[in-house]
């Protein structure tokens, strides 16, 4: 099965990683629930998916405010990362997206554009056997403003030397779709796990 692509001649494909290439959002949610639960914090699943693409710091700050807590951002982030790492052997890819990666490999320049840090993104792609398919990785800390700002997508297009209007973005979140639109790029929405 493939995803229906918008019409157009695309000269580059830009992929989000978490929830788009890597079918890891259920794993992230399990890690978040456990890490936050240790601080007496609750994160409903609907809210977790609605906040897709946001930084860990923003999420922890908003949960602290909403639930009257004082969770330390760095400690929660480390704990989540450790718990998620332990779940990595369960990681799988989104087959519909992998089809487009394999179909485009060697034909269309491709980049991963993620709100995640480079090492975990690289590790996920390596685990899935896909790291060598990408010409460029643009990860958190390599740009100033996160999605829905278009900066990360524009940076990836510049690295690939492809004009934004000739790029196709694969995304699973509202923030990512907004960022693609703001960059002047066409985009295809990757459905969440329960719709695939």
Question: Can you lay out the helices and strands and say which pair or pack?
Answer:
Blueprint: E1 12-15, H1 25-37, H2 45-50, H3 56-67, H4 73-87, H5 95-104, E2 110-113, H6 118-127, E3 136-138, H7 151-160, E4 167-171, H8 174-182, E5 186-189
Parallel strand pairs: 1-2, 1-4, 2-3, 4-5
Helix pairs in contact: 1-4, 3-4
Walk me through what this model shows.
The protein has two domains: 12-24 and 92-195, Rossmann fold (3-Layer(aba) Sandwich), CATH 3.40.50; 25-89, Orthogonal Bundle (DNA polymerase, domain 1), CATH 1.10.150. Strand 2 (110-113), helix 6 and strand 3 (136-138) form a beta-alpha-beta unit. Helix 1 (25-37) crosses helix 4 and helix 3 packs across helix 4. The chain contains eight helices and five strands. It is of the alpha/beta class. The longest helix has 15 residues, at 73-87. It is globular.
Gross geometry: globular
- Going across the biggest sheet, name each strand in turn: 3-2-1-4-5
Number of domains as seen in the coordinates? 2
CATH superfamily of the largest domain: HAD superfamily/HAD-like
CATH class of the largest domain: Alpha Beta
């Amino acid at each position: 099965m493939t995803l229906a692509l918008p019409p157009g001649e695309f000269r580059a494909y830009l992929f989000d990683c978490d929830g788009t290439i890597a079918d890891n959002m259920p794993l992230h949610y399990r890690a978040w629930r456990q890490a936050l639960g240790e601080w007496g914090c609750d994160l409903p699943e609907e809210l977790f998916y609605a906040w897709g693409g946001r930084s860990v710091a923003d999420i922890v700050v908003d949960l602290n405010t909403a639930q009257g807590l004082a969770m330390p951002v760095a400690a929660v982030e480390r704990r989540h990362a450790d718990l998620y790492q332990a779940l990595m052997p369960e990681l799988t890819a989104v087959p519909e997206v992998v089809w487009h990666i394999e179909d485009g490999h060697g034909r269309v320049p491709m980049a991963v554009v993620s709100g995640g840090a480079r090492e975990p993104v690289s590790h996920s792609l390596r685990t899935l056997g896909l790291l060598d398919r990408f010409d460029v990785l643009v990860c958190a800390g390599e740009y100033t403003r996160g999605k829905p700002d278009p900066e990360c997508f524009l940076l990836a297009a510049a690295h690939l030397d492809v004009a934004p209007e000739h790029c196709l973005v694969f995304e699973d979140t509202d923030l990512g779709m907004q960022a693609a639109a703001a960059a002047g790029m066409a985009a295809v929405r990757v459905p969440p796990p329960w719709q695939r």
